[in-house]
Amino acid sequence: MDFDLPEEARALQQMCRDFTEREIRPYAAQWSETEHVPTGTYRKMGELGLMGMLVAERYGGSDAGFVTYVAAMEEIGRGDQSLASGWNAHSTIASLPLATFGTEEQKRRWLAPLASGTHLGAFGLTEPTAGSDARGIRTRATRADGGWLINGTKMFITNAGTDMSLGVTLLAVTGDGADGKRFGTFFVPDATAGYEKGRRLRKLGWHACDTRELVFTDCWVPDDHLIGDDGNGLKQFMQVLDPGRISVAALALSLASAALEMAVRHAGEREQFGRKVGDFQAVGHKLADMATEVEAARALVYRAAWLADSGRPYAQAAAMAKLYASEAANRCARDAVQIHGGYGYIRESEISRFYADAKILEIGEGTNEVQRNVIARTLGRQAAGRT
After folding, report:
1. What is the C-alpha separation between 51 and 166, in angstroms, rounded?
2. What pTM did the predictor assign?
3. Is the same domain home to 382 and 240?
4. Other CB atoms closer than 10 Å to residue 147's CB: what's the count?
5. Is 157 helix (H, G, I), strand (E, B) or coil?
6. Domain count, the chain
7. How far apart are the C-alpha atoms of 242 and 6, rounded to whole Å?
8. Residues 134, 80: contact at Cβ < 8 Å?
9. Which of 89, 116, 143 is the last residue of a domain?
10. Which domain holds residue 317?
11. Catalytic residue IDs
12. CB of 60 within 8 A of CB of 71?
C-alpha cells in the first residue's frame, strides 16, 4: 500500500505552497479585517490552472482528479480559509452540475469560463426555511413562454456577488406529482431581469468570502438554461454533493494542519517560568493529540479522494471524511488558541482568524448531524447486503 502522492500531485502541491506564501498568506489578515473578496487572487489561480481542477481539459479545466485537488487544498487552505472556501464552492457544487449534466453548448457557454478562472461560480440550494431539508425548498420554476419563470429566495449563497461572478446554478421545484415534488436545476446568469442580490452577510468567520441572499421575482430564463432533465434536479444535486464533501473535508484538513503548525511554532518560542511553553507536558500532550488528529483526518480525506478517482463508491467515505476532519479542525483550532494563551484571543493573531473560521466546517455542505445520518444509512444497507 503506497501512501505517497503521485509525482504530479507533489509538484502541484509545491506550486500551491509557493503561491500561498507569496500571494495569500501576506494579505489574508488584511482581507479578513476589511472583508475584501480577493478576486484578483482567484484570477491568478486561474492562470495557474487551479480553478478547473475537476473539469475536463476540453472545457478549460485540468482534470487533475480529487487526490491532486485535495493536495492543492491543503496548501491553499493553510494560507486563508476564506479564499479557500470560495474556491471550494466554485470548484465543486458550482461547476460540477454543469460538468456532469450540462449539454455541450452549456459547458462551452458557462463551464468553460468557470474552469478557466475568468469567472466565479455559485450554487443556490439553501433557503430561509430550508437547509439540511433539501426537499423543503420553496423556490419554484414554472414553464412560461418557451422557458421558465423562477420565484423564490436563496440564502447563504457563496460567490454570487463578486466582480467576477458569472451567475448562479440553483435548485427549484418544477411541479408536484403523486410521488411528491419534482425538481429542476437551472443556470441564471448575472444581470438577468428579476434576479436580485441582497446585501452581503456579516459572518462569524470567512470574512473575505462573499455570502449573501439571492431573490428571484418573475425571473425568466429560456429552456436551454435547464441543466439535465426536469424532475432529476434533486438527484443531480445529491450526486455532486459527495465531491463537495470531499472538498470541505480537505478544507478542514488544511485548517487543522495550519492550527497545529501555529501551535508548534508558538510553543517553541513562548517562555514561561524560565522554560519554553512546549517543554511543559500539558502543552506537549495537546500538540501530540493535535498531530494525531491531523494524520487521522488526512487518511480519511485522501481515502475518499482516492475512491472517487478510482470510480468506486465513496459516499460513505466522503461523509466520514467531512465529519471527522471538520470536528478535528475545531478541536485543533481550540487547542491552538489555548496554547497561544492571551495572544490567541487577539484579533491580530493568525490563529484567532482560523479559530473563527473553524465552526462553519461542521455546518456547511451538510451538517455533521446529516453526515452521521448518511453514514448510518450506508451501514444499514451494507449489513442488509451481507444477509
Report:
1. 14
2. 0.96
3. yes
4. 17
5. strand
6. 3
7. 23
8. no
9. 116
10. 236-386
11. 365
12. no
